[in-house]
Write a structure and sequence with these properties.
The complex is a heterotrimer of chains A (437), B (381) and C (77). Chain B contains eleven helices and 13 strands. Chain B has 381 residues and is of the alpha+beta class. Chain B has three domains: 95 residues, 2-Layer Sandwich (Alpha-Beta Plaits); 167 residues, Sulfite Reductase Hemoprotein, domain 1 (2-Layer Sandwich), CATH 3.30.413.10; 51 residues, Alpha-Beta Plaits. In chain B, the strands form three sheets. Chain B has a five-stranded antiparallel beta sheet with strand order 1-2-3-6-5, with helices on one face. Chain C has 77 residues and is α+β, with helices and mostly antiparallel strands. Chain C has a single domain, classed as Orthogonal Bundle (Arc Repressor Mutant, subunit A), CATH 1.10.10. Helices cover 44% and strands 16% of the residues of chain C. The chains are: A alpha+beta (437), B alpha+beta (381), C alpha+beta (77). Chain C: InterPro entries: DsrD (IPR014793), WH-like_DNA-bd_sf (IPR036388), WH_DNA-bd_sf (IPR036390).
Chain lengths: 437, 381, 77
């Protein structure tokens, strides 16, 4: 028995994909039954009211939520997002319905004790509805009331030894791919870098003092499973400098059809016999490979490490041994001036604990952006406004051809005064000796 | 309800306060085989859709089964995940960036038992609880935002359209027949808190009307200068209007400058932007984040507006399915959707898909617009 | 004047028109201090319950505790 009739939402219960409506309904039912006899600290029927207000949105095609900025836990500027329903009398269970972001372990491995402990807190003190996970990577606890915020924070920190994540103008909860934990492509320990930087920059994460949000994401290879280059202000993407390691016997096994190409990723269709020349050598974006029918060779100097050949023949080709990462800066979603992809700043950095080399770049960027960034300006926009040269200057990184897709096509070069002999002063008298007026 | 104290003392917030402890360390919950072989993996293979095996230098194998998850998830559902992990996986599991859940075992027969168990569980309404799939050259789970479930500026719902689209492409969640991976994402407004701007198919909620101005409440509910400074295009300004015979402080909006971001509504509840008739969804295609073969690229708008059609969004799902099918039928192996569209030319993309090209699809927003116009006589009739 | 008083006086002087300010608005009050020093002043004021944060979700502002219109409207004061 549900509290509100939901004829529209009910139509989202059919079809094969997991139905969030069925799931919220089962939560509503579980709270109504209350088998553990909990003294629910927010209205027991809030999942019913959540369905009710959502049904209203489905009928009217308009949201019924308002933002609330003041709620939070003491001393933190982020981690809690205030939400109020604009139909509180009809749906009192969700009249106040704030979100809490909880810091996830990098790579999102859990044991069931951790998850159950979290569920127990959220059952008693929240709506029982979560997001696993939010877009930035946090565990999102969806819907509680103001008096519960400090209680939940206290139980998270004291009983579960876990902190809130970020929101607002601060360092957002960093995230990494699963890295070396289960991937042969990982060029560095992305999870460890993520964890260490998250710990080292807790103050930046909880106490906002940036012009706007700032995101770290860590991809251990150029395949980019956590979308670092597209979604983070500071993207560390694994790469290597030396030769791709080739096992020629295994290459032959792929060419001869003994091994399944692409690790089986294309097995849903008959694409015909695997053609190493056509599918690997001719697909190589920098044309740095040759296959003579028995031997595959790669000109390392020509390789751009796109991962295609390795992805296609993972048992035959491996990432090199001189490993590290490239750092790309300034990605963001479209508002205001359009989307930006991260721009390459550091072509190669060794990524080794305690990660001082990486931190040095981060802190130089922060110092600059905190001084120069305008309110609500992502670092990518500051870069556009003040130039890539300025970013190179403040990070002490020499300009190289790696930094551009192509050189500038206008000659409006802003030379610095000390780059021109004699600076910007002229000897007018000498000039007039050579030229009349 | 009796208030149950956690031990927190509201009159002394700093007493016994624990702060700045961050997340748990990433390796706290590794399954033993992951812990043992960390950094020592040799290769992997997708045995069947949704089932991967990773082989370590030690010879150890780990079988991972990937299941689709709803991002919006109840504690009852999470406890069922825990029950499965306890039963089959020694109490370990992980989540992926795309809201999937992965269960890991070290034995092939255990893998089969786990897979069959996962595929057997359904909600009473008939949908799968834990469908196995989402690997390789198929369609993985959609990433998405909050929508009408929790957000104050959405132009569409998120969980609902995602459910409908995933229902429509479900066969390809459980198959790997695509030329390359197809990543679909949905953001419920242009702010894209779940950035979808680099997806093979990105669905974006769009408003088409500037906010309403509630003159009666503006000065009572809002600090007008905050709403003014929140506007990214300087379209919002303070003003005095006559309301019911009295002069009141309020807000004016230069309508043709508004980009419908809703930032002013965040600051000022007297400027609601939600509009049932105006709001809807745009479809963007051809983005990617991987560096494989071609460089990462942004998605491009190919359908400027589709009205919201809850509860099943039939026009949207039909168009997404259609784009997927035309791509699957025409692209070469390894070509991502954007690579294919670029090879054949966008004019051919519109011809092949039959999508209507309208003036809305020509960029007119600031500097980057020019670089998308055609400065050449090379084009296809 | 003590640094903290500079912040509080600034907020009081503006309280007629707006009650919440971006971090950058405070750095302007201390031309001889870097952002990190200014942050320390603000953090101390937050911990003393003089200031509080206001968050739009994507950005954060600082204001005097309890000031402003919305907290009262939603019954949070």
């Amino acid at each position: 028995m549900t509290k509100h009739a939901t004829p529209l939402l009910d139509q989202l219960e059919s079809g094969p994909w997991p139905s969030f409506v069925s799931d919220i309904k089962q939560e509503a039912e579980a709270r109504a039954k209350n088998p553990k006899g909990l003294d629910y600290q927010i209205p027991a029927d809030c999942p019913d009211d959540l369905l009710g207000v959502l049904e209203l949105s489905y009928a009217e095609k308009e949201t019924h939520w308002k933002h609330g900025g003041i709620v939070g836990v003491f001393g933190y500027g982020g981690g809690v997002i205030g939400r109020y329903c604009d139909q509180p009398e009809k749906f009192p269970g969700v009249a106040h319905f704030h979100t809490m972001r909880v810091a996830q372990p990098a790579g999102k491995y859990y044991n069931t004790k951790f998850l159950r402990d979290l569920c127990d807190i959220w059952d008693l003190r929240g709506s029982g509805i979560t997001n696993m996970h939010g877009s930035t990577g946090d565990i999102v606890l969806l819907g509680t009331q103001t008096p519960q915020l400090e209680e939940i924070f206290y139980e998270l920190t004291h009983n579960m030894n876990v902190d809130l994540g970020g929101s607002g103008s601060n360092l957002r909860t960093p995230e990494a791919c699963l890295g070396q934990s289960r991937c042969e492509y990982a060029c560095y320990n992305a999870q460890d870098l993520c964890y260490q930087l998250t710990q080292d920059y807790q103050d930046e994460l909880h106490r906002p003092a940036f012009p706007y949000k700032f995101k770290f994401k860590f991809d251990a290879c150029p395949n980019g499973c956590v979308c670092a280059m597209a979604r983070s202000d500071f993207a560390v993407v694994g790469t290597w400098k030396d030769d791709i390691k080739i096992d020629q016997e295994k290459v032959k096994a792929y060419a001869g059809g003994v091994l399944k190409p692409n690790a089986g990723a294309h097995s849903g269709r008959d694409w015909g016999k695997f053609d190493l020349q056509k599918e690997v050598v001719e697909r190589c974006p920098s044309r740095c490979m040759k296959w003579d029918g028995s031997k595959l060779s790669i000109v390392t100097a020509g390789c751009v490490r796109c991962m295609h050949c390795i992805n296609t023949m993972p048992q035959a080709l491996r990432i090199g041994d001189e490993r590290g990462a490239s750092i790309l800066v300034g990605a963001k979603a479209p508002v205001v001036d359009g989307s930006q992809m991260g721009s390459l700043l550091v072509p190669f950095v060794k990524v080794e604990p305690p990660y001082d080399e990486v931190k040095e770049v981060i802190e130089k960027i922060w110092d600059w952006w905190m001084e120069e960034g305008k309110n609500r300006e992502r670092v990518g926009e500051t870069m556009k406004r003040l130039s890539f040269q300025k970013l190179l200057e403040v990070t002490d990184i020499p300009a190289s051809a790696c930094h551009v897709k192509e050189p500038r096509s206008n000659p409006y070069i802003f030379f610095k005064e000390d780059e021109v002999p004699g600076g910007w002063s002229h000897d007018l008298a000498a000039y007039r000796n050579r030229h009349q007026r | 309800m009796a208030f149950i104290s956690s031990g927190y003392n509201p009159s002394k917030p700093m007493e016994n306060r624990i702060t700045d402890i961050g997340p748990h360390k990433y390796d706290s919950y590794f399954p033993p085989v992951i812990k043992k072989n960390f950094g020592k993996w040799l290769y992997h293979e997708i045995l069947e859709p949704g089932v991967l095996v990773h082989v370590a230098k030690s010879g150890d194998r780990v079988y991972s089964i990937r299941v689709g998850g709803t991002r919006t998830m109840s504690v009852t559902h999470i406890r069922e995940l825990c029950e499965i992990a306890d039963k089959h996986c020694g109490g370990h599991l992980r989540f992926t960036t795309r809201n999937n859940i992965e269960f890991m075992v070290t034995d092939k027969s255990a893998m089969k038992a786990l897979r069959d168990d996962l595929n057997s569980r359904k909600f009473p309404g008939g949908s799968f609880k834990f469908p196995v799939g989402g690997t390789g050259a198929g369609i993985s789970n959609m990433v998405h935002t909050q929508g009408w479930v929790h957000c104050h500026t959405p132009a569409t719902d998120a969980s609902g359209p995602v459910k409908c689209v995933m229902d429509a492409v479900f066969e390809d969640f459980k198959n790997m027949r695509m030329p390359a991976p197809v990543r679909i994402a949905l953001a419920c407004c242009i702010n894209m808190c779940g950035a979808v701007h680099c997806s093979d198919i990105g669905l974006v909620g769009i408003h088409r009307k500037p906010p309403m101005i509630d003159h009666e409440w503006a000065d009572q509910l809002c600090e007008i200068p905050l709403a003014v400074s929140a506007c990214p295009t300087a379209a919002v300004r303070p003003t005095t209007v006559e309301y019911k015979g009295e002069k009141v402080k309020s807000i004016a909006i230069k309508e043709d400058r508004c980009m419908y971001c809703g930032n002013c509504y965040t600051m000022c509840p007297a400027l609601p932007i939600s509009d049932g008739e105006g709001d809807g969804i745009a479809i963007m295609v051809g983005g990617k984040v991987s560096n494989r073969i071609s460089m990462p690229k942004f998605s491009k708008v190919v359908v400027g507006y589709i009205p919201n059609e809850p509860p099943r969004w039939p026009t949207l799902t039909k168009m997404v399915k259609h784009i997927v099918e035309v791509y699957a039928a025409n692209a070469e192996k390894y070509e991502r959707l954007g690579d294919w569209a670029e090879r054949i030319g966008w004019e051919s993309f519109f011809k092949l898909t039959g999508l209507e090209f309208t003036h809305h699809l020509i960029d007119d927003f600031r500097d980057p617009a020019y670089y998308t116009w055609r400065q050449s006589t090379q084009f296809k009739f | 004047m003590v640094d903290k008083d500079v912040v509080v006086d600034f907020l009081n002087s503006k309280s007629g028109s707006k009650t919440k300010f971006y971090f950058n608005d405070f750095t302007a009050l201390f031309p001889n201090k870097g952002p990190r020093e200014v942050k320390k002043i603000l953090t101390a004021l937050v911990n003393e319950e003089v200031l509080e944060f206001w968050s739009s979700g994507s950005t954060t502002m600082y204001g005097l505790k309890g000031a402003g219109k919305q907290s009262h409207a939603e019954g949070e004061s």
